[in-house]
Write a sequence for this structure.
């Protein structure tokens, strides 16, 4: 049986996401990761660095808020207090290849946060100076942290997050898997989606963070192809201990294929009352199905040919209450 169009679309989106994680064919020169307090981007950036080490790429970690060098990073650059020009020159010194007959080594540059850039208007020039054919840039932005007032006097300048999403070739939004499942259950019951963290509106306390401490996460991807067409899909990233190693094994699936979000492939009527919360059965038992098939429909005899080529004739018996009209009968 040929795969459906939806299955083909899911397989294509999963292939694009795997190419993005593996830094294959410069799938995305600038990847923007948007996270929140409920779900940090750290598990995703860790997976990017792990796969970069498998591909023997150099990992350059630029720290605006991180104090300790990550274990998988090759170069650790402290960016606090430096101008974008000086920072770009320092990063380029680690990515510029030396004259060698061997192929150029790939590089992955990670910016741990771009929530409060010094001057947002200089970001396009900054990105263009550090991105090359063998370099991929991964930048993280915290969407629930308000940016500092811009030093620019242009009141019509776009919001820093708007500018970042416009420049990025791929935008990844990470959310907690438990929170995404709870929101889906609320939508199925036509209830308002619950809020967590700052969206709860509780003063002085953040509730709902405990359910986001797990390693499993979900998120949406929006990748802009070279042709200008955007590919959007949602994925689930699950982790499990790797056999014989101290690390963890990561598996990425399309959200529709995950057991929590998979559409039920049961027969029609089976299990509907459980999903909708009904107290009665909406399906048919086997006995009811056989009885329905054995019912003789009205005027069933009219479907059988009667002699003389009169097939399709309607047989009608006049009742006492019927008004017999001879003129209509003749017509």
């Amino acid at each position: 049986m040929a795969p459906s169009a939806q299955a083909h679309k899911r397989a294509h989106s999963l292939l694009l996401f795997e190419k993005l994680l593996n830094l294959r064919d410069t799938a995305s020169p600038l990847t923007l990761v948007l996270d929140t307090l409920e779900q940090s981007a750290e598990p995703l950036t860790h997976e990017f660095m792990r796969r970069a080490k498998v591909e023997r790429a150099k990992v350059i970690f630029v720290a605006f808020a991180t104090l300790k060098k990550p274990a998988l990073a090759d170069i650790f650059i402290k960016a606090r207090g430096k101008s974008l020009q000086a920072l770009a020159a320092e990063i380029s010194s680690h990515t510029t290849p030396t004259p060698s007959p061997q192929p150029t080594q790939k590089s992955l540059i990670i910016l741990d946060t771009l929530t409060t850039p010094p001057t947002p208007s200089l970001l396009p020039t900054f990105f263009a100076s550090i991105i090359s054919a063998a370099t991929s840039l991964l930048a993280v932005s915290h969407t629930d942290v308000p940016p500092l007032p811009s030093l620019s006097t242009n009141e019509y300048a776009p919001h820093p997050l708007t500018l970042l999403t416009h420049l990025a070739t791929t935008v990844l939004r990470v959310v907690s898997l438990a929170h995404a499942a709870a929101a889906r259950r609320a939508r199925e019951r036509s209830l308002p989606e619950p809020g967590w963290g700052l969206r709860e509106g509780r003063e002085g306390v953040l509730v709902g963070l405990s359910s986001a401490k797990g390693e499993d996460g979900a998120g949406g991807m929006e990748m802009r192809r070279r042709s200008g067409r955007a590919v959007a899909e949602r994925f689930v990233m699950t982790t499990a201990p790797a056999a014989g190693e101290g690390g963890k094994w990561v598996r990425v699936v399309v959200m529709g294929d995950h057991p929590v979000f998979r559409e039920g492939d049961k027969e029609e009527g089976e299990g509907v009352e459980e999903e909708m919360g009904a107290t009665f059965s909406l399906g048919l038992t086997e006995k009811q199905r056989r009885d329905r098939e054995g019912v003789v429909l009205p005027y069933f005899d009219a479907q059988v040919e009667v002699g003389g080529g009169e097939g399709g004739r309607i047989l009608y018996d006049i009742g006492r209450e019927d008004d017999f009209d001879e003129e209509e009968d003749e017509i």
In short: The chain is about 25% helix and 20% strand. The longest strand covers residues 230-241. Confidence is low (pLDDT under 50) at residues 264-276.
